Amino acid sequence: MPILESPYARLDLIRQPEQPNEPLQAFDAADEYLLAHLHEKALPAGARILILNDGFGALACSLAQRARVISSGDSHLAHLALQKNLQRNGLPADAVTFVPASESAHGPFDRVLIRVPKTLALLEEQLIRLHGQLAPGAEVIAAAMVKHLPRAAGELLEKYIGPVQASLAVKKARLLFATPCDRPAATSPYPTRYRLDQPAIELVNHANLFCREGLDIGTRAFLPHLPRALGNLRVADLGCGNGVLGIVYALSNPQAALTLVDESYMAVQSARENWQTIHGDRLADIRAADGLADQPPASLDLVLCNPPFHQQQVVGDFLAWRMFTQAKAALSQGGELWIVGNRHLGYHLKLKRLFGKVEQVAATPKFVILRAIKP
């Protein structure tokens, strides 16, 4: 396992979720570049630092003994990684304060360190929230691998913070330095909303949601085929996003008990708001979680899922396979996992290996809806 060595610490770091023979490391050259820069510029001891989107805690763990560190991001898995990596490296659990992206971190901050996220809407929302939170002489530094650093990221820093200067690239990583200057407080364009025709509902979508401007085409293919009138089943919307699958299912199944889970805090925030708007006081368990990892065995009758095919910038079916495995463990005997997926991903074969019995419920030219039954 690669070790992160910086002027501040020598750290053994793991990613979340863990997988055997992990091919990827929990830090990259952008983390190393940013830490080296801070040391070169003599980071004051005890400085109050806000770190945004620290993937697996590399920056926060490195600086935890040097500064007062507040870490904020939208990933529950990143939060788990931070907790585990603090413990793994003998650091106190309270050495870093974590603030979910569904809440605002409160300054004043002497340094703001940003790992540029994949979703620039999240970056924009985070920059808007920095207004009034910067201490005099504060520095705002964004870091990314060059291949993941769009021009628009610098434009957002310029718009909301101040003039931006880019560093030279080192090991294919780059830093952006934004000099804070007076800017009027901006009105956030988030959350956004869109309406469905069938059923006729409006959905709220906070900044980091996938397909924030409209229903994604996989879910659109899935909705007409959701099972109806199944009585008081225990049902989970796994990877719920704004909650649309669980919310629409609940409209047709008024006796069902719903659980909606996602690893994105902004997704859970959106799902809660949407559930309350559409279902009022009807109870539901809506939470940020590592999928169904904490769900008791055999505690569900039905799991609905539109699985993701990427984690941050990494594309693959590892997360989907993990979700299928979690669903099987959480389902009672005879319980069912219903999913939608691109035809080319071959989920039918994966589910058959795991469940044995798999049926195709429906198909479009691009998507298949599959039903797997736990033996």
TrEMBL record:
Entry keyword set: Cytoplasm, Methyltransferase, rRNA processing, S-adenosyl-L-methionine, Transferase
Domain Methyltransferase small: 201-371
UniProt xrefs under SUPFAM superfamilies: S-adenosyl-L-methionine-dependent methyltransferases (SSF53335)
Domain of life from the UniProt record: Bacteria
Subcellular location: Cytoplasm
Keyword Cytoplasm carried by entry: yes
Gene3D superfamilies: Vaccinia Virus protein VP39 (3.40.50.150)
PROSITE patterns xref list: N6_MTASE (PS00092)
UniProt EC number: 2.1.1.174
InterPro entries associated with the record: DNA_methylase_N6_adenine_CS, RLMG, RlmG_N, RsmC/RlmG, SAM-dependent_MTases_sf, Small_mtfrase_dom
Listed Pfam families: MTS (PF05175), RLMG_N (PF26049)
Transmembrane segments: none
GO terms assigned for molecular function: 23S rRNA (guanine(1835)-N(2))-methyltransferase activity; nucleic acid binding
Enzyme class: transferase
Domain RlmG N-terminal: 2-180
Catalysed conversion reaction: guanosine(1835) in 23S rRNA + S-adenosyl-L-methionine = N(2)-methylguanosine(1835) in 23S rRNA + S-adenosyl-L-homocysteine + H(+)
Cellular compartments per GO CC: cytoplasm
Family, as annotated: Belongs to the methyltransferase superfamily. RlmG family.
Protein's job: Specifically methylates the guanine in position 1835 (m2G1835) of 23S rRNA.
Protein name as it appears in the record: Ribosomal RNA large subunit methyltransferase G
Organism: Stutzerimonas marianensis
